[in-house]
Design brief:
- Helix content is 35%, strand content 37%.
- It is an alpha+beta fold.
- The protein is globular.
Length: 167
């Protein structure tokens, strides 16, 4: 009987963590329509290319011998606010690509749309830290600090612990 109670409690905790992750993921976007648009765009790209591994290989030109370990939906904190996308953790680097393209002005004044990308080679990572909001522990953050002391903050994971365990 104790093993059944233990399994039920373990499953309840997993479900609670997942619900907290979804709530946090939704909280970071200002408009629900933006969430739907981004997720549909991401889903279409994954389907077109034949899976998350192929998305990783195409977007980031995976090197020979490089293997994708984990892909997680999350947000990258920027000075203009959080950007939704996919965080890929491979055997050689940690990379991020936004769900939707972002507009910016090119040097010649044209408006250009590109996906926001970050690529951090593992050999350039000084440390990875876990953090949480003291007032709301369900809001968890992952900080990656590079050798040149630049830090990247990721948040709003659907499964935070699993993503962090691959680092």
């Amino acid at each position: 009987m104790d093993s059944k109670i233990y399994r039920m409690d373990k499953n309840r905790r997993k479900a609670d963590n997942f619900v907290d992750g979804v709530s946090e993921h939704l909280r970071l976007r200002s408009k629900f329509s933006e969430i739907v648009k981004g997720k549909l765009s991401l889903g279409a790209r994954i389907l077109q290319l034949g899976g998350v591994k192929r998305v990783f290989r195409q977007i980031f030109c995976a090197k020979e011998g490089e293997k994708l370990l984990k892909a997680s939906q999350c947000y990258l904190s920027t000075t203009v606010g959080p950007i939704a996308g996919l965080l890929f953790i491979s055997t050689q680097r940690v990379v991020f690509c936004s769900d939707i393209s972002i507009k910016f002005s090119s040097p010649n004044g044209e408006l250009v749309r590109i996906h926001y990308k970050v690529s951090i080679p593992l050999r350039k990572i000084k440390r990875a830290n876990q953090s949480e909001n003291a007032k709301k522990p369900s809001q968890k953050f992952m900080e990656i600090v590079t050798m040149d002391n630049f830090d990247f903050w990721f948040m709003g994971f659907l499964n935070y612990q699993k993503a962090f365990s691959y680092l």
